[in-house]
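Hello K.,

You asked for the raw outputs rather than the summary table, so here they are, unedited. I folded two proteins back to back in the same session to keep the settings identical. This is the first:
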Amino acid sequence: FQGYVKSFNTSAGIDLKRDLIGNLGDQVILASALDDAAPADAPLDQRLNQLYAISLKNDTAFTGAVESIKRGVYGQAADKIFEKRAYLGHDIYTYAPPQPPEAEGAPPRPAGRGFSYAVADHWVFLGIGSASLVENALQGLESKQASFWDKDDVKRNLLADLPDNSRWLSYVDLGKIMPVYFDAIIQGMQTSRKMAAMRAQRSQPDDGSGQTPPAEPDKPLVDDSAKPDAATLAKYWGYTRSYGYQDAHGTYSTGRVIY
């Protein structure tokens, strides 16, 4: 592996450890948001857009390392594979995975998830799925409006009692995420039921004798219409806040759920 890295460094004209990894800072922000464009029956990972924000020590060196890696892997095709566009004075690069060919008569495959990234103000923003979260982050850099963390209720409920030695903080709006979890549970139950029905059907003798008729794999197991709507769930689910801290005796974490 070390030999491969050395060879790649030579061909790309960079030092991966120094120019790429060495320029990553010590702050990491992770965020997820619902993708309004995704259908309600899409898998959970397809319904959430994710953002990773990592602080940088040197924007220019990091950007140069990323560009060298792209050209080292894709050559001159890198500019076509990563679509570049300007946004609020910064560049956003987007990668959309190629759609695999489909067999004749086969149902269409779900499109693979792409990603977008941008480097700005000593941060690299990486968005999985839609580029909207990267755009939102760049808007936040340019905006003079108060951020989510500057709100009085957020300071009072989430930040006021954080110890000085906190290492990380997590916040989840349960009113928004619980409907998605409901859908994910239903999808899992439906999938398990269909697989069990198909296994039972395959295990039957050819003449069907001595076997109980298998359940219909396509018959709904759960009445989707009985699921409470998002507004109803939001009345009973508030948020969860957790944080981690460290002292001379170890590393700890604590959390609470507000209904």
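The second followed immediately with the same parameters:
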Amino acid sequence: RVLFTATIPGAFDIKGIKLTRGEELILAGSNGNGAARVVKISPEGDIVFDKIFAQGESGFTHLELSSRDEILLGGSISGGNGQLHLLRNDGTVLYSVQLYGAVSSMAFSPRGDVFVASYNERVGSGKLSKVTPTGHVLFERPAAAKYDQLVIDVDGETTLVSTAEGRITKFKEDGTNTFDKLIDRSENPGYVVSSVAENGDIVLAGYGGRITKFGHGLMINDIVVQEPLNGFSMANFTVTLTGFQRQHGIPSPVSVQYK
């Protein structure tokens, strides 16, 4: 059944949508005048608040909710830089931070800090930033790519994935870079979608039926599916050991079997 139909006034290019635990709807994006915009709608379909942020060539592209339903907004502003805002559920702004480069991915850590990857298209470089719940930027680390996936595990380790480049980078909670690998060094690896599992496994898929699975610190399974031959589908597998795997956050020995 339809619970409600709401109409938001004015132009609104929606880039993010989340549902709170109280069944309130949070929408983020930009309006028709180049300003970042966030709207909250009640369970009954009424607009609770409608806020406009930075004006001129800006907009929100990313939206996340904390465990307390605080609203995290990330996006771009003029000049190729980025903006990050944390709001209470009632719309009160807790902090606003300007970033080097537009936000490409972001997430809350188990401790409540925010890790955000940003990329400046004009300069061609990016950064990983850690922001405290009070809005203090603890560090900014150079990032080699435009990362569209950012996942934080229970130990606070951050995994960054650039799907387009086929690049995986890892940082410790203190900002130490521990891993950086290009899965395919060709100019255009052809990956179009990626996914990071809770155990740290990473899967990238692209053109030509190509699927690459990267075990968390363990291996790369590069699968290239070929055309069927005499009723059988042929596939080439490449397995490369690189260290240990984690199960429920605990390092465990590697055991690989294949046929």
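The CA atoms of residues 65 and 71 lie 5 Å apart.

Happy to rerun anything if the numbers look odd on your end.

Regards,
P.
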